[in-house]
Amino acid sequence: AAVAQGWPVPMLLGKVIPRHWVLLIGFEGGRYRIYDPGHGDVLLAGAEELRGGLGFPQVFGYVVPQL
After folding, report:
1. Which of these, 53, 57, 4, lies nearest to 27 by C-alpha position?
2. Are 20 and 56 in contact (CB under 8 A)?
3. Which pairs from 13-17 meet CB under 8 Å and 24+ separation?
4. 26-to-4, 16, 31, 40 alpha-carbon distances in Å
5. What string of H, E and C letters represents the secondary structure of 4-23?
6. Average pLDDT for residues 37-61, to the nearest whole number?
7. 56 and 14 in contact (C-beta within 8 Å)?
8. pLDDT value at position 55?
């Protein structure tokens, strides 16, 4: 809901340290726009890919604004 309202949402991936941060920056065409600072790229991923951890073992957490 926060991303749909235009809020960027940091997402922490991984299972053990070091973990990896990405930033959900938008939603278009049924897919999330995700900025990955490790690659400097903006990725597109569906909800299932997001829940799957984007190649990391799991989603560790989100930082969601109070709506």
Report:
1. 4
2. yes
3. 13/53, 13/54, 13/56, 13/58, 13/59, 13/60, 14/53, 14/56, 14/57, 14/58, 14/60, 15/56, 15/57, 15/58, 15/60
4. 7, 27, 8, 16
5. CCCCCEEEEECCCCCCEEEE
6. 90
7. yes
8. 86
Q: In this structure, what token pair is assigned to residue 46? A: 């569906």
What are the start-end ranges of the E strands in the chain? 9-13, 20-28, 31-36, 41-45, 59-62
- Mean pLDDT of all residues in 2-27: 91
- At 30, give phi and psi (nearest 5°): 80, 10
Cα–Cα distances in angstroms (integers) from residue 23 to residues 14, 46, in the given order: 14, 14
Q: Hunting for tokens 């400097």 — which residue is that? A: 40
Q: What is the mean pLDDT of the chain?
A: 90
